[in-house]
Here is the input.
Amino acid sequence: MALKNKISGACFTLVELLIVISIIAILAAMLLPALKKARDSVKTISCLNRQKQTGLAVQSYLSDFSFYFHSPNDSDEIKWTSKLMANDYITNGDILCCPSTKYDRYSTTVSGWYTYGAIYTNDASLCISMKNYTETTKAYILACSWSVAAQKPFFRMYTTDSTSEAYGRPYLIHNNKVNMYFLDGHAESRARESLKSIISGLITIRYAAESSGNCYINVQ
Here is the structure.
């Protein structure tokens, strides 16, 4: 009789354990989306802070070079990120990259890939002056960027009508929003619908990379 009671007690304990495990599994399933959302929010804030630090470096460069921007072009094999780092405007290459994307630190500091994208025009030799920007609160100069063809962040962003997937575009990686740094010194997250109202001198955003990075979408 005593042995039977022990067995019954063990079975009851096992059932209780299974119930507890089931409850934990249900709670975990409920909490995981909230935890992911919280983690993504932290990365969004971290990204904005990195853009502000990078933006300050760009502003320092502008001050030293008669308010002319560095060219984002790589025709001389020296990308804008390398120029800033080589001249000690930036000492930590990590601030050049969005924390929501995976990146190779060596490629970031040397080749310039995986970084935030700088605005780019068709004329590679064009030097743009800060004085060309009349609405600094709407004039973005940096943003999270993506190349669909390369499947990685792109150091420069094209603003043409071309739908070529080789080009870098603003990347809607932060909960379907893109983080952008503006000429007046602020950084913010922008949804797709609001991108068409953003200007950068005479440049208008026409396409953006969707949040999965698989294709470009028209924002006009």
